[in-house]
Structure formats: structure tokens, C-alpha cells
Specification:
- By secondary structure, the chain is of the alpha/beta class.
- Helix content is 32%, strand content 21%.
- The chain has one domain: UDP-N-acetylmuramoyl-L-alanine:D-glutamate ligase (3-Layer(aba) Sandwich).
- A hairpin with a 4-residue loop joins strand 13 and strand 14.
- The longest helix is centred in the middle third of the chain and has 15 residues, at 154-168.
């Protein structure tokens, strides 16, 4: 077992994912520099939205709490989610605001430039009233993301959702989802995350995200490359600061080197990677979160749950998109079996 109580299966939903959603316009010209792209394909994205699809395809009962504008882009996102079987009826429309968009290039193996269009975006307008209308107490797990903490009123709504979840015995997962250009100062991301840690059961992040969250300094962001950044500092010190800050379990994603789960009690669980050829890393972290949620809610131990997460992430890096590329449970099981099992 994971070492933490797993909420009862008789609740209406396994996962309620809260936060951003977008239309993702991916380059059709794989390998072309961004300035030479000639066309884009339309997909659905946004960390919690991707996780809602990823967990649903794994067989979990998933609901989404995002917000969209009264526009055709919002229609596009909701139609896709409804076809996937994700419950969307708790997602409000926000008059006067627009559904978010992201434009992305694909230059494997290590360049994936992306540009966010989130000015006046609808999902950052989620409110406490929207949370009160959502089925947090009827969900086994609540997943929030760092971007949802970047601005008001979403920040207060997200923290309130965590309070409701903790009172109801709903497990709270935080995907750090640090996007440097969505924060006025990267140090503010750390301040907000550290303040939220006592409300978080499981936090997930890359080594770079964890260092920023812990207050390590020297972040360097490349122009048009906000998914790739470097942070100076010591990862072990960063891990310790977050664990001492109140989070129950900390999941560190090492990319091609697998993942490690640290618990507040001092346990360490290593999960080996599944080496694959990379096409596109965008969305892999959300697939990882989907697999981890699945394993956790099955009552698996942390090593096996993280190994499942590595598998779902590895599959998605071989595919071109985010939500649209999430694997089914049968695909993951076949993938893992072919590579020696968990």
C-alpha cells in the first residue's frame, strides 16, 4: 500500500482535476524551427485537463473543474472532454473572458518552444463559489496545479478547494506545473507553494520545479522556451525543505532517469524508467500524474505506482500531443509487460 489511507471507492468520482484548460495548436512540421512552421493541428491541453483525460482513459471516473469562455474554443474543449467521458458539468462559462490557447513547436529531442495566450483567460477566474458547486467531497482525489495558484481569484479558490478536500478525507495532489511566464516573479511561486504544503498530501514536480518551490535561486529562462529552464541549487536540500513544510509525500520526476518518492516519515522509493525514443515531451508530466493517481487509488505501494507513472509518461513522449495522446489502461499494461513488468 502507499502508506496513506485511500478514500473509499463508493464516492461518485475517483479524480476531480482543477485548473487550466486550453486549445493546443501543435506544429505539424516536426523538427522545423518555430519560425518555419507552416501549419498546426488542434488538440486539447492544460495540466488538470490532461490529467482528467489521462485518468479517464485508465478507467477511473474523472471530473474536471476548469472554466472556459462563451466562445467556440470553449465548445471545442468541452466537446472533446465529453466524448472522452470526463464529467464537465461543474465547469462554468465566464462571460467577458476567453478560453486559453497555447501554440507549440516540436523540435526533438530537446527543443519544444511554446507560447501561452492567457491574457483575460477564463480558467484563472475560478472562484470559491465554483468550488462549492464542485463534487470535492464526492471525489477520492483532488488534483490541483501550480498555475491555478498564480493569480486571483483562482488562487483563493484553489486553496479553498484543498481545505474542503482535507476536511472530507479527499486526497490532495499538487502538480507543480511551474510556468515561469505565468508568474510575476518565480520567487512568488515558491512562497505560494510553501504556504499551501500543509494542505497537500502528494506533491509532484521535476527537479527544477522542486528547487523553485523550495526557494532555490538563479532561475534562467530561455526566450520562447518557457518549458525549458534551469535553476541553481541543491535538490536534496530542496526536497527536505518541502517535506519539512508539511507535504506528506513528494514525488520527484527525473525524466529519462525515472522517479523517486520521498515520504515525510523518511521512506524513499525509487522507480526505474522505461527508455523510449522521444518525439515530444509536452504532456508527459501530466501522463505521469495520471498513472500515479491510478496506482495510488488502486492501493499500490509507491514504487509500483511511480513505475506505472513512468510508463504512462514514456508512452506519451513517443506521441505528438497532450490530452489526445494519453494511453488507455490496456496500452499501458501491454507496454509494461513487454518491458519486464513493474
Amino acid at each position: 500500500m502507499t502508506g496513506q489511507p485511500v478514500p473509499p471507492a463508493e464516492r461518485a468520482y475517483d479524480v476531480l482535476a482543477m485548473g487550466r484548460s486550453s486549445i493546443d495548436l501543435y506544429s505539424n512540421d516536426v523538427g522545423a524551427p518555430f519560425v518555419d512552421i507552416t501549419s498546426f493541428a488542434a488538440y486539447v491541453g492544460g495540466c488538470p485537463t490532461n490529467v482528467s483525460v489521462g485518468t479517464r482513459r485508465l478507467g477511473l471516473r474523472a471530473a474536471i473543474l476548469t472554466a472556459v469562455g462563451p466562445d467556440p474554443v470553449g465548445d471545442f474543449i468541452l466537446r472533446f472532454l465529453e466524448r472522452e467521458g470526463v464529467e464537465t458539468r461543474f465547469t462554468p462559462r465566464k462571460p467577458g473572458h476567453r478560453t486559453s490557447a497555447v501554440v507549440l513547436g516540436i523540435e526533438p529531442p530537446d527543443r519544444f518552444p511554446l507560447v501561452y495566450y492567457r491574457d483575460n483567460c477564463a480558467d484563472i477566474e475560478l472562484t470559491i463559489d465554483d468550488v462549492l458547486a464542485a463534487p470535492i467531497v464526492d471525489s477520492r482525489a483532488l488534483l490541483i496545479s501550480g498555475t491555478g495558484l498564480s493569480k486571483e481569484p483562482s488562487r483563493s479558490a484553489t486553496l479553498f478547494a484543498c481545505e474542503v478536500a482535507r476536511a472530507a478525507g479527499t486526497t490532495v495532489f499538487l502538480d507543480m506545473d511551474f510556468r515561469p511566464d505565468q508568474w510575476h516573479d518565480p520567487r512568488a511561486f515558491g512562497v505560494v507553494v510553501r504556504g499551501a504544503l500543509p494542505l497537500i498530501d502528494v506533491a509532484l514536480g521535476t527537479e527544477e520545479e522542486i528547487k523553485v518551490a523550495a526557494g532555490e535561486t538563479g532561475i534562467s529562462v530561455t526566450h520562447m522556451q518557457v518549458s525549458n529552464y534551469q535553476v541553481e541549487g541543491d535538490i536534496e536540500r530542496a526536497n527536505r525543505r518541502l517535506l519539512d513544510g508539511g507535504v506528506r509525500s513528494l514525488v520527484v520526476k527525473h525524466g529519462p532517469r525515472g522517479a523517486t518518492v520521498f515520504t515525510a516519515g523518511g521512506d524513499v522509493h525509487e522507480a526505474a524508467p522505461f527508455p523510449v525514443e522521444i518525439l515530444n515531451v509536452l504532456g508527459a508530466g501530466d501522463a505521469f500524474a495520471s498513472g500515479l493517481l491510478y496506482g495510488y487509488l488502486q492501493g499500490w505501494d509507491w514504487q509500483r505506482a511511480a513505475r506505472m507513472a513512468n510508463a504512462t509518461g514514456a508512452i506519451v513522449v513517443t506521441r505528438p500531443a497532450c490530452a489526445n495522446s494519453m494511453p488507455t489502461l490496456s496500452e499501458v499494461e501491454e507496454f509494461v509487460t513487454q518491458r519486464g513488468g513493474y
